[in-house]
Amino acid sequence: MKALPLFHRLDGEPCLVVGGGVVAARKVRWLVLADAEVHVVAPEIGEELAELAARGSLMHHRRRFAAADVTGKRLVVAATDDDEVNASVAAAARAANIPLNVVDNGALSSVIFPSIVDRDPVTVAISTGGESPTLARWLRGRLEELLPASIGAFAAFLGRKRRSLAEAGERPPRAFWEAVVAAGPKRGEAQFEALLADPASKPKGQVAIVGAGPGDPELITLKALHLLLSADLVLYDNLVNRAVLDYARRDAERRYVGKKRAFEGTRQEDINRQMVEAAEAGLNVVRLKGGDPFVFGRGGEEIATLAGRGIPCVVVPGITAALGAASYAGIPLTYRNVALSVRFITGHIARGSEDLDWSHLVAPDQTLVFYMGLYNLERIATALQSSGMPPDMPVALVENATLDTQRVVEGVLSDIAERARAENVSGPTTVVVGEVVRFRSRTEPPAGTS
Ligand SMILES: C[S@@+](CC[C@H](N)C(=O)[O-])C[C@H]1O[C@@H](n2cnc3c(N)ncnc32)[C@H](O)[C@@H]1O
Questions:
Q1: Ligand 1: nearest atom to the Cα of 289
Q2: pLDDT value for 450
Q3: In Å, what is the CA distance from 363 to each residue of 52, 198, 247, 263, 384?
């Protein structure tokens, strides 16, 4: 380990920052947050420092640095753009044995500022031992995403309760606190109260019905990510990219409950039963569904079941296939003066075309997006033409949308079924019908970071 992370209490402690520019301001900001008594020595200071000085958050000594400035300080920061001044600050701090940071100069520094994720009172410090500040910033970004904003308030709640129980002479066992923490920021308070009232109680778990997006694992929401990180059990569908499961807590159980077209799969009643049983046993369940749970996802049936059993339930939207496919294929779903509305339609027509009112689907200025339409493509194309849609209406098939294997096959209503056969389109496919397909521009898929 190149440097040992230690958290310093600096409240009310005199700290010196030499320099008045933006670099100095970055360090001063942290010192102010730590409630240090901040002294800035610089002939001039920039806007941010001037504001802090006006607010009384720092004392500005308007002059050049003198070695005596370090006397009595707990921390010294050299943050000027003058190497000579920085070297003399370093020499004075070293002579007085005071921890010293020279900005962007690890070799001269005895302490370094880590990249910080601040969820006060929770603080995460990241260091690459000075090797790559860029990597440290990137890591910080990832952790910022992972740690919900509420984690700080949750830590403060735990602290308050721990102190008040101690004052009352109570010392709950470690398992008590583990159960409260495992319930997470949202349900921790209820868990605390329930366990306090009855240590043997097992409060009901909750079920989060979560949209996993159409495929690209980076298309899930931060809320989905946070729920996965605190799930005990993940019940996932066939169309969920397995890479999304990697976001779940390491020891969470991952249970496949998928159904594939024409293949025997888990029945909806079984899925409902598994959700209910797990939640009643106190588990945090994430029911992970492809795309959005409320778009051809049977999410409605699942929330009704949970509500009927009094199980707390949240629904987190996901990017539905139509939106993912359109974006990654470069097809705008609406277009000024060309397509004024979009309709999402199921192409899963069990017994003949009488299920859909085709004449209502044929209207000017709109885009049709069929889900589950590949296997009935011939029938869909024929029915639309019979109902008056021109045979040369453009159609795009987006197969495996948003994944590396995405393919787009273009055609018109009269030949699209033949083209699908010729190209052997067989993966999950979204069918876009409308003039907007002519406005397709080949876009690059958004660059990934994972
Ligand atoms: C049962 S529906 C589920 C839809 C899902 N709830 C949503 O919001 O995207 C399954 C259909 O969604 C479409 N679909 C799902 N993922 C897709 C993908 N990656 N590429 C293209 N189409 C997809 C296909 O039409 C597939 O037959």
A1: 6
A2: 45
A3: 62, 62, 43, 35, 10
Topology of domain 204-319 in CATH is Cobalt-precorrin-4 Transmethylase; domain 1 (3.40.1010)
Nearest to 236 by CA among 281, 293, 183: 293
Let me know: does 429 contact 398? Beta carbons within 8 Å.
yes
Peptide bond between residue 121 and the one before it cis (omega within 30 degrees of 0): yes
- Per-residue pLDDT averaged across 431-450, rounded? 80
Q: pLDDT per residue over 330-386, tens digit each?
A: 999 999 999 999 999 999 875 554 578 898 899 999 999 999 999 999 999 999 999
**Average pLDDT over all residues of the chain:** 92
Q: Token pair for residue 363?
A: 């209207």
Domain residue spans of the chain: 14-113, 204-319, 322-439
Q: What is the pLDDT of residue 437?
A: 97
Q: Active-site residues: which are they? A: 237, 259
With 0.85 as the threshold, say if the pTM is over it.
no
CA dist 314 to 213, 228, 293, Å?
Answer: 17, 13, 11
Counting ligand 1 atoms within 8 A of each CB, the residue from 220, 221, 236, 296 with the most, and so the one to mutate, is 296
CATH class in words for 322-439:
alpha beta
- Classified by CATH at the fold level, domain 14-113 comes out as Rossmann fold (3.40.50)
Rg of the Cα atoms in the chain: 30
Tell me the CA–centroid distance for residue 329 and ligand 1, in Å: 15
Give the lowest-confidence range in 107-116, 352-361, 382-391, 392-401. 352-361
